Amino acid sequence: MFRSPSNISRLGFGLFCLAVLLVGTPLAAPGGREPPPGRAGGTQAAEQLYAGYWNAMTARMRDGAHACEGAPGGGCNLAHWVDWQALTDRLHGADARRQLAEVNRAVNRVRYRDDQDNWGRPDYWAAPREFLARGGDCEDFAIAKYLALRALGYGPEDLRLLILFDTGRGTTHAVLAVVLDGRVLVLDNLHGAILPLGDLAHYRVRYSLNERIVVRHLARSP
Q: Rounded to an integer, what distance in angstroms lies between the CA atom of residue 56 and that of residue 98?
């Protein structure tokens, strides 16, 4: 489970407020103080970096014209966007586990593309329209799932984008964590199964974030 941090990097509501949700509903300012999701520590350099990526992505959400900017052949196919809206419409009011399973399955069908190949830069957090049009890498899958679940009524306090180290593959990875019935469940683009975070011993969480906070997790003791 997430543990309370001794210090949280709060980068300002303006930095993390989603101006527009996936289906276009304005996001209201959060009320009160959200319980923190993990122990914080170290410098704020990475927190600021991830905040910048998130802020740039949400800014592009306000301008759908960016979806096809720079696409090969001068355009891109946004047919996935219609399917996406139909999916979220269909899942409103459905059982929570069905919502998680169908969102995970639908997003995982989008093409995987490395940021360098896709955008000509080593790291780029795509807005949903960009991701659906051009594909993306692990954090883009996680962000799309996050925003789909926000559109379905999940609160930010129940959602975290996890930046982690995958000891099995020896690489950095990103997934979406969802708190449901007291458990932290992981939606991963690498497989269709939705598993408790505690069952994924090869995943070492380094950072967790949502639209309100960024937390740096202290490394586990040996």
A: 31
Amino acid at site 160: R
Contact of 148 with 22, CB cutoff 8 Å: yes
The residue-averaged pLDDT of 106-118 equals 95
**What tokens appear for 213 in the block?**
């906070």
CA quadruple 207, 208, 214, 218: dihedral positive or negative? Answer: negative
According to DSSP, the residues that pair with 179 across neighbouring strands are 184
d(CA 127, CA 145): 11
DSSP state of 68: G
Could you tell me the pTM of the whole model? Answer: 0.77
Q: What's the burial of 15, exposed, middle or buried (CB within 10 Å: 0-12/13-18/19+)?
A: middle
pLDDT in tens, 52-101: 899 899 888 877 544 444 444 444 555 566 677 788 889 999 999 999 99
User: For the chain, what are the domain ranges?
Assistant: 38-63+77-216
Give Cα separations from 81 to 96, 106, 198 (angstroms): 22, 12, 34
Is the separation of the CB atoms in 118 and 136 below 8 Å? yes
Question: Cα(first)–Cα(last) distance of the chain, in Å?
Answer: 18
Main-chain phi, psi angles of 204, to 5 degrees:
-110, 105
Place of tokens 């399955």: 105
Pick the CATH number of 38-63+77-216 from 3.10.620.30, 3.30.1490.20, 3.90.870.10, 3.20.20.10: 3.10.620.30
